TrEMBL record:
InterPro entries: Acyl_CoA_acyltransferase (IPR016181), Bact_Acetyltransf (IPR050832), GNAT_dom (IPR000182)
Organism annotation: Dactylosporangium cerinum
Lineage: Bacteria, Bacillati, Actinomycetota, Actinomycetes, Micromonosporales
Protein name, per record: GNAT family N-acetyltransferase
Domain named N-acetyltransferase: residues: 6-170
Keywords, comma-separated and alphabetical: Acyltransferase, Transferase
Assigned EC number: 2.3.-.-
Any one Pfam family match given in the protein's UniProt record, by short name: Acetyltransf_1
GO MF term (any one): acyltransferase activity
Amino acid sequence: MTPTAVTVRRAEPGDFDEVARLTVEAYRADGQLEEDHGYGELLADVATRAAHSEVLVAVDGGGGPLLGSVAFVLPGTRYAELSKLGEAEFRMLAVDPAAQRRGVARALVRACVERATVLGCGSLVISTRDRNAAAFALYDTFGFVREPALDWVPVPGVNLLGLRLKLPTTTT
């Protein structure tokens, strides 16, 4: 049996509970909520995230179950951590543990790259835990490069490493 294609679309209010569930579950399964520091509550608050960013979801085929989500963020907005004028970033990338290894994260990152490109952003930035080898491998395939100037520590023991993808710019 061949898996169906993964489609990415903007989250709708009816998706928010499922996005909250799968995001918290994915972060917990990955060991990223061991010392929560309130981050689990932030991950579960999808309505607020959607009011201040573009929450994208990956679905199975044209309308199957939700498989993952990500927040696409512009600088100066509530969820912006790294981006500056002319850039975008994405945060809270999560794939339901039951849907991993199906290209869901890749489809969500690709959607963020495409969205940033359409908006004319010069770069797309992201930060990820220093111990998240799978994330680094994924981002490397897109051409993201480490940018130590973007590294930061939101709470003691959580070391986030910054990466940047330079995007093609068009001139008219």
